[in-house]
Design a protein that fits this description.
heterodimer; B: mainly alpha; Sodium/glucose cotransporter; two-stranded antiparallel ribbon; two-stranded antiparallel sheet; 23 helices; 68% helix; 3% strand
Chain lengths: 103, 591
């Protein structure tokens, strides 16, 4: 078996290598990355933060019969995860349209 | 109709439904066999992903684990759902845009290397087989308890069903059967949950019931009552775990990242028409999963309350029927330490290990065991965590059709996951090893035949592992996640987000992550299990959570090596540019 000879599949996209397209794609990509940082921060805070690291502190409050930290660990984080994905889907569609890169 | 007749009826009906769907959706091409033609609607794909994902472990074991672990059970809840955020945001849309058939496809192409592809195939097969053996075992348990057939026959029936729709239908057949299986399993999970939540709290919605007061007149909240009752019996508080914070943190992280790196889950997102559909579909999948995952902690808590109340201080002679049923199936045992005929349920093990029945019965009619009695604890009851979900309807005295539904649901959960795993194993062999590596000249027809043969072989191996489970299977199923987190996830992630990652870096990273994680787990679980205590663990991280360290090692090695070697060729850089924008995803066939 020799290495380095896997044929490249035809790129599916349309990377016509004009500079304008490149600048456009770069701007699109960095906006995506900024959005990802924000959303992943929320993801981290509701699960690792509220459900684990600060659970002891949050447990002094309660939500109905749930200690708050316990609620985040077994219920709340999951609800936020669902919202995060749908928000990302919605926001990305707008960003893609803005740069005319949607599918 | 008797409960037994209802069980046969429900299971029979669900099986004919799966077979009917398989006949209706036969795969005619490799594209249909591998990725269902790429034209699955995002909501259907969400359901299929949910069924694919929720295995026998989620359906049968998870609520039971939470019932006995309390807060510590949160690692599974957060870990197995948070992974979908990682998947939807960081991997799925890009992999869909890439538009090929398998996970090793992506790694092999992105890292322009057959070696990388083969390493990825090895990781994939390793992860998938550890996972699948547990599914066939779940099928066996459900069959033996509910259908009164020996475990071996149960596994063989399960294999035959999976063979039928996975081998004939490929991904297309599996997708639509999984949609049906999701409906069966979620219905089967929710119905008893509504009943039990209503019985205990007066509120039928389990997610709200868990935060409500118990309707026994005490005015206590469910969780308060559990804490009080359990502490009285010498257990720790339910809302307070016994694992260290760093361990909880690392296990959760390993499960999250591992979920995002599981090949049979990733490949589901290759089946939707567009990159943006992959995101949408992950969102739907998580909604469908969250329904079960937010219910499980409620079922766990209610089951624990019910169990304590019906078992503790009850005379064995008056024990409810379900108690004796599960005792007959070896999953419950009672040893009358103080010779009073009553069952004392307390903290601590009743005896060492799992029950070793002598075949004789004691004074009260209980099955005697030969295990060494643990005199340090007053506890007299042994209970296998896995029975809680299956026994719950009986414990709560629900009607026979609910019990029958749960049996059909457990089978749906195990079979759907098994089928998904079999497919990724077979496609990695026929597509990645044969077509892309060793037999590039194979025809499409030949490749399709190879895929079917590989799927058949994988079913036989999985069935064998289910019938004769090697001791290590149960021990390592949970570790599939650690291995996925430490091997495949970093390679895929950097392939998308780190342009200068090259093949040398990726290969070195995957191998070092896999070897480190595997050795750590093997050392504590297989080689010297007696040293498996917190004091000996690296930074206090248990083998369950060590995948995170493996992942960090993978990243570090990959980045270090890539800095010292040549950067990837221009065409690869162009490919990365192309997968980063959604426009122009490959065509899809509508069905």
């Amino acid at each position: 078996m020799t290495d380095n000879d896997t044929p490249m599949p035809e790129p599916n996209g349309h990377p016509d290598q004009g500079n304008e397209t490149n600048a456009n794609e770069k701007a699109y990509w960095s906006e995506n990355i900024r959005l990802l940082w924000t959303l992943m921060a929320v993801w981290f805070v509701v699960s690792f933060g509220a459900g684990i690291l600060f659970r002891g502190f949050l447990d002094q409050f309660s939500l109905g019969g749930y200690p708050l930290g316990f609620w985040f660990a077994q219920q709340g984080s999951i609800y936020v995860f669902v919202l995060l994905i749908f928000y990302y889907t919605w926001k990305m569609k707008r960003i893609e349209r803005k740069y005319d890169l949607d599918d | 109709m008797s409960t037994q007749t209802l069980i046969y009826l429900f299971v029979g009906l669900s099986f004919s439904l799966y077979i009917g769907i398989a006949i209706w959706t036969r795969a005619g091409s490799t594209k249909e066999f591998y990725i269902a033609g790429g034209g699955v609607h995002p909501i259907f794909n969400g359901m299929a992903t949910a069924a694919d994902w929720m295995s026998a472990a989620s359906f049968i074991s998870m609520a039971g684990i939470i019932a006995f672990a309390g807060y510590d059970g949160s690692v599974y809840l957060m870990g197995w759902t948070g992974g979908y955020v990682v998947l939807a945001l960081l991997l799925a849309p890009y992999l869909r845009k890439f538009g090929q058939f398998t996970v090793p496809d992506f790694i092999g192409t992105r890292y322009y290397s057959k070696t990388a592809r083969v390493v990825a195939v090895i990781c994939l097969i390793f992860i998938s087989f550890t996972y699948i053996a547990g599914q066939m075992r779940g099928v066996g348990i459900v069959f033996s308890r509910f259908l009164d057939v020996p475990i071996t026959l149960g596994v063989i029936i399960g294999m035959a069903i999976v063979f039928f729709y996975a081998v004939l239908g490929g991904m297309k057949g599996v997708t639509y059967t999984q949609v049906a299986q999701y409906c069966v399993l979620i219905f089967a999970y929710m119905v008893p949950a509504f009943f039990i939540s209503f019985l205990i709290t007066g509120n039928p919605i389990p997610q709200l019931g868990l935060g409500s007061t118990v309707n026994d007149g005490s005015g206590l909240y469910v969780l308060q009552k559990l804490d009080l009752v359990l502490q009285d019996m010498g257990f720790g508080a339910y809302t307070d775990g016994s694992k260290s914070m760093i361990d909880v943190f690392c296990i959760t992280a390993a499960l999250m990242v591992g979920t995002a790196g599981l090949p049979h889950v990733i490949v589901r997102f290759f089946t939707v028409p567009k990159a943006s559909d992959a995101r949408k579909s992950a969102g739907w999948a998580l909604i469908f999963i969250a329904l079960l995952y937010t219910t499980a902690p409620a079922i766990g808590a209610f089951a624990r309350i019910n169990f304590v109340e019906t078992v503790d201080q009850t005379a064995y002679a008056e024990a409810p029927e379900w108690f004796k049923n599960w005792e007959t199936n070896d999953l419950i045992a009672w040893v009358d330490k103080n010779d009073d005929g009553k069952m004392e349920y307390r903290s601590g093990d009743a005896f060492a290990g799992s029950p070793d029945f002598t075949g004789e019965t004691g004074k009260s009619g209980e099955r005697l065991i030969a295990n060494e009695i643990n005199t340090a604890s007053e506890n007299e009851v042994y209970v296998d965590k896995d029975i809680m979900v299956l026994a719950n309807p009986e414990i709560a005295n629900l009607p026979g059709w609910v019990i029958a539904l749960v049996a059909a649901g457990g089978l749906a959960a195990a079979l759907s996951t098994a089928a998904g795993l079999l497919l990724v194993i077979s496609s990695s062999i026929s597509h990645d090893l044969l077509k892309q590596t060793f037999r590039p000249k194979i025809t499409e027809k030949g490749e399709l035949m190879a895929a079917r043969i590989a799927a058949t072989a994988a079913i036989v191996v999985a069935g064998y592992l289910g019938i004769y489970p090697p001791g290590w299977v149960a021990q390592v199923v949970a570790f599939a996640f650690g291995l996925a987190a430490a091997s495949l996830f970093p390679a895929i992630f950097m392939g998308i987000f780190w342009k200068s990652m090259n093949k040398e870096g990726a290969i070195a990273g995957m191998i070092s992550g896999l070897v480190f994680t595997f050795s750590y787990i093997a050392y504590f679980k297989l080689i010297s299990p007696e040293t498996n205590i917190a004091a000996n663990w690296l930074f206090g991280i248990s083998p369950e959570g060590v995948g995170v360290i493996g992942m960090i090692i993978n990243f570090a090695v990959a980045i270090g090596v890539s800095k010292m070697t040549a950067s990837p060729p221009l065409e690869v850089l162009k490919m990365i540019d192309s997968i980063r924008v959604p426009r122009g995803a490959g065509d899809a066939s509508v069905h």
